[in-house]
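During the reporting period, we have paired protein sequences with backbone structure tokens. One record among many follows, to show the layout:
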Amino acid sequence: MTAVSLSAGGSGSRAPITVGTLAKPVFFVGFMGAGKTTVARRLARNCGVAAVDMDTFIERQAGKRVKEIFAEVGEEGFRAVETDVLRQLAGGEGRLVSCGGGVVKQPENRELLADQGFVVYLRVSADEAAGRISDRSSRPLFQDLDAARTLNQEREPLYAEVADVVVDTAGKSVGAIASEVRRALLKEGVLCLQQK
């Protein structure tokens, strides 16, 4: 058996670390199951920038799950909370923000997204999204695939309206999608990378 060296170069040298900065917040929008959170996390690791999932941020602030907030205050109440959090994240440091699938429903949110950040729309069909979701009990919308298809079609023009770049995710790996987004952010001058 041949021994394999784990060092990234001779005599203990380490590979350079990539440190990135974002000129403005980058918002990932798209239907549930598009891979917004997964792609944002992969990109954050690869580029040395911060990432936040909006629903997780809401849950930490509220001290309860999104579905509990929905149950207590209904969709309208949840959307008001979502707008407040979006305003906070839009006014903060440059970071990758994965948004909930319905964030584009509110006109105020679409304005915030378009004015305050760079928006990446990860496009996915409802059928492909359903195939990616392993635990459908946490995504009740996918109990009725026809309803999911209809909702995705209704939201598609809203996602497109706010998008600075559209990435079709069909048949692509997380790594391939993250690389495509990274190229777009570099090309648009939103992402700056340095080796340390």
Q: What stands out?
A: The domain at 18-187 is CATH 3.40.50.300 (Rossmann fold). Confidence is low (pLDDT under 50) at residues 1-12.
